[in-house]
Amino acid sequence: MPCAIQMASHLSGLSAHVIRIWERRYGAMSPTRTESNRRLYCEEAIKRLKLLRQLTEVGHRISNVAKLSTEDLELLLDQHLQRALLPKAKSKAAQNEALKPIEDPKKFVDLCMAASKAFDSEVMHHLLQRARQQLGQRGMLHHVICPLIQTIGESWQAGNLRPGQEHLATNVIREVLMMPVPGNQVAENAPELVITTPSGEVHELGAMLVAASARDLGWKVTYLGPNLPVEEIAACASARNAKAVALSLVYPEKCPAIAEKVKQLRQMMPESTALIIGGRSAAGYQEQLPDLSIHWVHCLDGLDKILTQASVLV
Predict the structure, then answer these.
(1) Given 155, 228, 232, 303, which is the most exposed site by the fewest CB atoms within 10 A?
(2) Tens-place pLDDT, residues 227-245
(3) Which CATH architecture has domain 192-313?
(4) For the chain, domain boundaries
(5) Domains 5-81 and 192-313 in one fold
(6) What percent of the chain has pLDDT over 70?
(7) Whether residue 85 has pLDDT greater than 80
(8) How far apart are CA 206 and CA 219, in angstroms?
(9) What is the mean pLDDT of residues 113-141?
(10) CB 237 within 8 Å of CB 270
(11) Torsion of CA 92, 98, 100, 106, to 10 degrees
(12) pTM (2 decimals)?
């Protein structure tokens, strides 16, 4: 049954804005219309959108592939997989095995952990690329990157990862999170989000995860890196006329100095600029600062809900 553009966006892993741009500018497809002129997407259209997303994510220009037939898109993607994503396997059987889709996202996490323990950053990169291709950007962030970061932290704390293995894994994740998704265009009038961590907080993977997710939801993102004085955060938010500022708090927990910095930042910014705080230590700071106007989030789903709320966007 044909579906509306919101469902097509969910199924394809593309934002509704990108779908409209690809239709209008590149003629990627021509959806049917209702009597009220709303777009409707059939199963074949969803398949094309998925293929186009996967091909642009591996480097093809949308202008070069938009008008190819669905069969040609499938062939082009298969050729890319055979060239770029196959491990250096000697036997044909091993290569065929490597081409099979990984159905369970947990399998990606397990394989990435194995690659980090083998100090093999190339394999880990390929696995995360495959995850993005099969699950889309949102699926990769929610079902692979989030549990992978948690597993790495728990394994390191338990002594099951060497420091070098933990560094390798987090650096690969950092590179993937900062890698632009080809074809993902942000609207000119999109709201802007400033992302950082306050001085004293040097862990930045959470902040980078927020940046990747916000971009995928259509926000303009100004990423400042970690460990920044609140005066600089407020100055950037003002200069950029940001709709929101997001902080990631991981360690230390319930630190009075960091709690005071959060309080100062909230006071430095106008109420119209939303302050979003998440991370492993966020719950403790929420207990310390219950009366401040702050959006507290404790998972990526919670962040997504905040970033799509009208109260934040207006």
Answers:
(1) 232
(2) 999 999 999 999 999 999 9
(3) 3-Layer(aba) Sandwich (3.40)
(4) 5-81, 87-178, 192-313
(5) no
(6) 90
(7) no
(8) 17
(9) 87
(10) no
(11) 160
(12) 0.67
Tell me what pLDDT residue 210 has.
92
Which class would CATH give 5-81? mainly alpha
CB 183 within 8 A of CB 53: yes
Whether 224 shows a pLDDT value over 70: the answer reads yes
Give domain 87-178's CATH superfamily: Methionine synthase domain (1.10.1240.10)
Provide the token pair at 119.
């100090």
Pull the structure tokens for residue 219: 């926000």
Radius of gyration for the chain, computed over Cα atoms and rounded to the nearest angstrom? 21
CB 249 within 8 A of CB 210: no
DSSP structure string for 245-296? EEEE--SSSS-HHHHHHHHHHHHHS-TTSEEEEESTTHHHHHHH-TTS--EE
Within 10 Å of residue 6's Cβ, how many Cβ atoms? Answer: 10
- Cα–Cα distance between 151 and 146 in angstroms, integer? 9
| pLDDT for the residue 81 | 62
Question: Residue 107: CB partners within 8 Å, gap ≥ 6?
Answer: none
Q: Return the pLDDT at 195.
A: 95
Return mean pLDDT, the chain: 85
Closest C-alpha among 247, 279, 244, 272 to residue 261: 247
